[in-house]
Amino acid sequence: MAGCRGARPRSRGRRLLRLGSWGQAWRHPRARRILLCRAADLHLAADRVRPGGGGLDRRRRLRRDHGRRAARRARRDGCIQGAPGTVTPQLIVFDFDGVLVDSEVLSNQVLASVLTELGYPLTPAESHRRFTGLNVRAVRQAVEGDRGRPLAPEFEAMVREQAHRRIATELTMVAGADTLLRGLDRPRCIASNSSPVWIDLALRATGLDAFFLPQCRFSAAQVAKGKPAPDLFIHAATAMAVDPTACVVIEDSVHGVRGARTAGMRVLGFIGASHIEAGHDAILREAGVEAVFDDLAQLPDLLRRL
């Protein structure tokens, strides 16, 4: 790690890092190296201060080092980012809504209700077609662009209040999510456009919180731009100290697929949640997924074949 700390990116790379432009910085080779090294330093520091800890345990250390060696080999051999077969997957990045929790129908009902109340009539079906995969901030921008005037400042609070009220009694996990995660033998994390509070509440409400440590939950609130920008995916890979070429993303939305592909990650499309409409598999394939599946029980076999 000492050699990594000594490396200094060129002036453009330093400027991008200082401004927090992670998507652009990741495409700058030397800045990308600094990001990975910083993430590894943070993981080592966290392990040193953990009560009763004595550094990384052997299993985690081997997993981390193996991922770095695989990424170095891919770059050395001139592999194209995101091309099939370049790097053995080291990290599974799950989208959240519509992949692990069956929340898109509920979310679009809430969005349509709030927007209609604020003078922008919308049905849940229209909300689904326009806004699935976007965060509330992006929805506000889209609506204000259509209206030509600002949306009421209480929009986000109204969405949050209605969604959180319904989550405890109406939200369910996607069928088979718990079984999949219980048997998954690879590192995993969540990368979602939803807020950290929503992710935590939904995980607890569906009983999936035990499968994702807090430091493995990433939200668009942590980056400058959510999906379809690549920032969230790059942030997650950096925090987990895994090269994007060694990540496989599970997505149900076109916005998420585009963001993951731009970040250099491989993507599998999931179409098994209740909000999916006929023909969505073709839409995801056109966006760039390598395969489409409608049952989470199929995922382990798909991962073995990558």
Walkthrough of the structure:
This protein has 3 domains: 55 residues; 146 residues, Rossmann fold (3-Layer(aba) Sandwich); 67 residues, Putative phosphatase, domain 2 (DNA polymerase, domain 1, Orthogonal Bundle). The chain is α/β, with parallel strands linked by helices and 306 residues long. The longest helix has 21 residues. It has a 6-stranded parallel sheet with strand order 3-2-1-4-5-6, with helices on both faces. Helix content is 53%, strand content 8%. The radius of gyration is 20 Å and the shape is globular. The N terminus is likely disordered. It has 15 helices and 6 strands.
Q: Tell me the name of the CATH homologous superfamily of the largest domain.
A: HAD superfamily/HAD-like
- Alpha-beta content class: alpha/beta
Any idea what the radius of gyration is? 20 Å
**What is the average per-residue confidence, as pLDDT, rounded to a whole number?**
81
> Helix coverage percent of residues?
40-55%
Summarize the helix and strand pattern as letters.
HHHHHEHHHHHEHEHEHEHEH
Strand tally is: 6
User: Mind telling me which CATH architecture of the largest domain this is?
Assistant: 3-Layer(aba) Sandwich
Question: First CA to last CA: what distance?
Answer: 30 Å
Summarize the biggest pleated sheet: 6 strands, parallel
Strand order of the largest sheet: 3-2-1-4-5-6
Taking pLDDT < 50 over at least 5 consecutive residues as the criterion, the unreliable ranges are 1-10, 40-56, 70-86
CATH topology of the largest domain: Rossmann fold
Strand content: 5-15%
Overall, the morphology is: globular
Task: Say what oligomer this is.
Answer: single chain
Helical stretch count? 15
What count of structural domains? 3
Task: Write down the CATH class of the largest domain.
Answer: Alpha Beta
